[in-house]
């Protein structure tokens, strides 16, 4: 397999075409952004950590028969993935009140929900990724009703698997963001699962073990990312 020209560069990754039409190479970056891109920086070693963690978690999901774009880790910072057509929705699964949910609705951080809360946002930087509901999604033609149903089902199953796994590692899965894509007529998980996309708290201390350390200038960002990887390995 040969890696060809770059197709896309996002905030945290680059995507490259390969000599196989149904395969891409994803390259992780150390770049970090927050608050809709208004805060920018770098987290040393983040590319390596997030690549490895995503590989571990995608492999775990495969064991639970949840389809993803992941094929294999190629190098410290690269993965081989299926060439999905990304559905322009971000899916947020919340188990505990935190972050934008608490700020937006005035709910105290740390309150445990009886059932997970699912939110959708329209993946569009120009409009700042606004929240949307099923009716918006249908009206804008972003995804079919069946695709939305499947996304919700996968998201909740992924939450169950990840919650249990992280708990074994001394981490509480507070909330996380997912992206899905179309591949050979099927909706599958894409993007990444890492401390960039998950809000993780230590089980004993509630210490933040994710990108909130960068967002909120809490310090020890690189060390925390490495600690999450150490626990998962």
UniProtKB/TrEMBL annotation:
Please identify the protein, giving its name as recorded: Phosphoribosylaminoimidazole-succinocarboxamide synthase
The entry sums up its family as follows: Belongs to the SAICAR synthetase family.
What GO terms in the biological process aspect are recorded for it?
A: 'de novo' IMP biosynthetic process; cobalamin biosynthetic process
Q: Which residues form the SAICAR synthetase/ADE2 N-terminal domain?
A: 7-231
Enzyme Commission (EC) number = 6.3.2.6
Gene3D superfamilies, from UniProt?
Answer: ATP-grasp fold, B domain, Phosphorylase Kinase, domain 1
Catalyses which reaction(s): 5-amino-1-(5-phospho-D-ribosyl)imidazole-4-carboxylate + L-aspartate + ATP = (2S)-2-[5-amino-1-(5-phospho-beta-D-ribosyl)imidazole-4-carboxamido]succinate + ADP + phosphate + 2 H(+)
Where, by residue number, does the polypeptide cross the bilayer? Answer: none
Please provide, alphabetically and separated by semicolons, the GO molecular function terms listed in this UniProt record.
Answer: ATP binding; phosphoribosylaminoimidazolesuccinocarboxamide synthase activity
In terms of PANTHER family, this protein maps to: MULTIFUNCTIONAL PROTEIN ADE2, SI:DKEY-6E2.2
Species assigned in the record:
Alkalibacter rhizosphaerae
Which pathway, per its entry? Answer: Purine metabolism; IMP biosynthesis via de novo pathway; 5-amino-1-(5-phospho-D-ribosyl)imidazole-4-carboxamide from 5-amino-1-(5-phospho-D-ribosyl)imidazole-4-carboxylate: step 1/2
Could you tell me which Pfam families the record lists for this protein? SAICAR_synt (PF01259)
The UniProt keyword set, sorted, is: ATP-binding, Ligase, Nucleotide-binding, Purine biosynthesis
> The organism's lineage?
Bacteria, Bacillati, Bacillota, Clostridia, Eubacteriales
